[in-house]
Amino acid sequence: MAEIDDDLQGIAFQMATEVRGYLSTVTEVAAGSSPDVALPLLLLAVSDVLWVGSRLAAITDVVPDDRFEPDLGPDPDVDPLRDNLVNALDGFDEYTSLVDPLVDGETEVLTISGGLVSIAQALSQGLRHYEAHRVGEALWWWQFSYLSDWGTTASSVLRTLQEILAHVRLDVDDDVAAEAEFEALQG
């Protein structure tokens, strides 16, 4: 690949840093070590990778020198991560999403766990290139997969996580709300 300038090196470094953080957070949530903060942690991790991914979408296309992606060996097994996330997100994993809001109103049922794993797979592929000192290939992979897959998936998952948190924090039983209103008026 042609020489990668300092700006692209900086974006690649930020991307690798956020990818590591995302993978660490998703793995921690899947382990079930902190169920009380799982949703906020996932919200932060997904929004962080979306932020840096949007920088990739805003730059000129990164084009690799070679037509074929270098072989990185076998893909990591993500089934245990998926299974653990399904368990950690039991009860609120499924959601409905628009397939393509620009084309029609068709919806599909997705899972947060499936989205998180799909994002992890795409991000880790780029990270493997980055860690093999193929920065241009990593940038190309992250940019291409952001535009073709994980950016949309992450946006959908992020919105769903935001909605879940809003319901958890704002939905109050009518009796509790009436009691609080009564106490506020009496105080």
**Largest sheet, described in full?**
2 strands, antiparallel
Give the topology string: H per helix, E per strand: HHHEEHHH
According to DSSP, the number of beta strands is: 2
Distance between the termini: 70 Å
Order of strands across the main sheet:
1-2
| Mean pLDDT reading | 86
Report the structural category: mainly alpha
Query: Rg from C-alpha positions?
Result: 20 Å
Give the helix proportion (percent range): 55-70%
Oligomer: single chain
Which word captures the global form? elongated
Strand content: 5-15%
Total helical segments: 6
Residue stretches low in confidence (pLDDT < 50, at least 5 long) are: none
Q: Features of this protein?
A:
187 residues; mainly alpha
Quick summary of this structure?
It is built from 6 helices and 2 strands.
Explained architecture:
With 187 residues, this protein is mainly alpha-helical. It has 6 helices and 2 strands. The protein is 67% helix and 5% strand. The chain has a two-stranded antiparallel ribbon. The longest helix is centred in the last third of the chain and has 36 residues.
